[in-house]
From TrEMBL:
<comment type="pathway">
    <text>Carbohydrate degradation; glycolysis; pyruvate from D-glyceraldehyde 3-phosphate: step 5/5.</text>
</comment>
<feature type="domain" description="Pyruvate kinase C-terminal">
    <location>
        <begin position="354"/>
        <end position="467"/>
    </location>
</feature>
<dbReference type="Pfam" id="PF02887">
    <property type="entry name" value="PK_C"/>
</dbReference>
<dbReference type="InterPro" id="IPR011037">
    <property type="entry name" value="Pyrv_Knase-like_insert_dom_sf"/>
</dbReference>
<dbReference type="InterPro" id="IPR015795">
    <property type="entry name" value="Pyrv_Knase_C"/>
</dbReference>
<keyword id="KW-0418">Kinase</keyword>
<keyword id="KW-0067">ATP-binding</keyword>
<dbReference type="InterPro" id="IPR015813">
    <property type="entry name" value="Pyrv/PenolPyrv_kinase-like_dom"/>
</dbReference>
<keyword id="KW-0547">Nucleotide-binding</keyword>
<feature type="domain" description="Pyruvate kinase barrel">
    <location>
        <begin position="4"/>
        <end position="321"/>
    </location>
</feature>
<dbReference type="InterPro" id="IPR001697">
    <property type="entry name" value="Pyr_Knase"/>
</dbReference>
<keyword id="KW-0670">Pyruvate</keyword>
<keyword id="KW-0460">Magnesium</keyword>
<dbReference type="Pfam" id="PF00224">
    <property type="entry name" value="PK"/>
</dbReference>
<dbReference type="GO" id="GO:0004743">
    <property type="term" value="F:pyruvate kinase activity"/>
</dbReference>
<dbReference type="GO" id="GO:0030955">
    <property type="term" value="F:potassium ion binding"/>
</dbReference>
<comment type="similarity">
    <text>Belongs to the pyruvate kinase family.</text>
</comment>
Amino acid sequence: MRARDCKIVATMGPASDAPERLAMLIQAGVDCFRLNFSHGAREDHARRMDAIRAAEAKAGTPVGVFADLQGPKIRVGMFANGEIKLRFNDIVTIEASSEPGADGLIRMPHPELVNALEVGDILKLDDGKLQITVTGRGRTQLEARVDFGGTLKNQKGVNVPTRRIPISALTAKDREDLAYALDLGVDYIALSFVQHPEDVHEAKALIGDRAGIIAKIEKPSALTQIEEIVEVADAVMVARGDLGVELPPEQVPIAQRKIIRTARAAGKPVIVATHMLESMVEAATPTRAEASDVATAVYQGADAVMLSAESAVGRHPQSAVAIMDRIIRAVEDDEEYWSSLPRDMTPPQATTADAIALSARHIADVVGCAALVAYTATGSSAIRVARERPRCGVIGLTPFINTARKLALVWGVRSMVTEDVANVEEMVAKADAAVRKLGVAETGDRVAVIAGIPFGRAGKTNTIRVLRLE
C-alpha cells in the first residue's frame, strides 16, 4: 500500500489510554499523539507517555508526541447562585474581582482584561453562545449590553475578538506544565492563544532546543502578524475551536487557508484541528460534511489533521483514525489534488539547502524516482524537501531518534534512525537499504539522495545523487 503523505494526530484520553488501544491506533495510522494539559493530572500524562513509547517500540516506527498547554483561558468568576440570566438588551455591570457575582453583575478575576476593554468591545461568553458589548466604562467598572441572552454559569469562558489582551501566553500553570512535559521528553510544545511573535520568543527562552514549538492560531490578533509568528515557530496549528468563536463563521475557512499557505511558504509543518470528525465521539461513521472538511484541509496542503475528543473520549477512536486515513488516501489518489497542490514554495531569497531541496524534487519528478532520501541531523533537510511536495514522498535518515520523532508531523516524510555516514559509498548503501526495507523501491528503481558533504555537519546540505538500485 502506498504511504500516506498527510499525517494524523490523535489526542490522548480515557478512550485511548489502554496499551492495546494505543497499538491499534498506531496500526490504524496515527503518526503523532497530543497530550492535552488542559485536562488530567500530570501523572496521567506521564503514564500515557510511557505507553506511547512502549507502543512505538513495538510498532518499530518513530511516533511524535506534543504537549498542548492550556494557556491563559479567560473565564468569568463564580456567581452567588451558580448562574445568572442574561436577557436581550439588558445592561449588566462587569467588575474585576474574585468575589461572587449576581444578577446584573459579572465579576472576572482578570483585572488586565477589564482594564484593557473599551466602549464597543465585544465579549463572547460560553464558547460564543452568549454575547455582550461594552457600552460604557467607569473607573473600576464597565457597563455592557446583552446582544445574545441565556444562562451564564460559573467560570464559563470569555473570548474578546475585538481586543488584543495584554496577557502572556504562558500562565504560572503553563510554566510548571512546560517543565514537566520537557522532562517527559515530548517532541513539541503547543503554545495556546498566541497573539504575537513575542509569545513564541518567551516560550523559546524556556524550552531552548529541548523541543519544537507549535504556535496555535486561535486569536484574530494573531492573524494580523501571522507571517512573523510562523517565522519564529517550528510548526503551526489552525486551532478552529476558539478561532471559530472569535471570528464570524464565514471567516474561519478563509483564515484556515491563509494560515496553511503562510506555513507552507515558510516551510513549517501546519496542523488543522478541532471538530474534524466530531460526530464520531458518539457515531460509528462521520457526516458527509465532516469528510469534506478533512478532505479540504488535505487539498489545501496541510501537513497533518487532528482528532480531539474523537480519540480522547469518543466511543470509536480506532474507527475515527481509520476513516481519516481513508479520506486522506482518497484525496491523495486524486490527480486533481496533485495538479492543484501549491508546489515550488521555495522563496526567491533561498539558501543553498533550499535550492538543493527544490532541485531534488524536480529531478525526482523528471526521472520518475521511487523515493527521495534526505540525510538529516536536525530534520531541516527533510522538511525543506517536504515543502516542495514530491510525489514520491521523502525518506528522512537521521542518527537521532528525537529528529525522527519530530519528522512524524511533517507531510510525506517517513523517518528512520541510522548511523551517520562517513563517505559517499556508505551514503549510497544506507539509502539503498532504507528504501528497500520500507518497501518504497526495488531493483531497477531510481532514488534521489540529498546530503551534506563533508558528512556529519548539520545544516550543510549541498549534494544531490541519483542512484538506480542494483
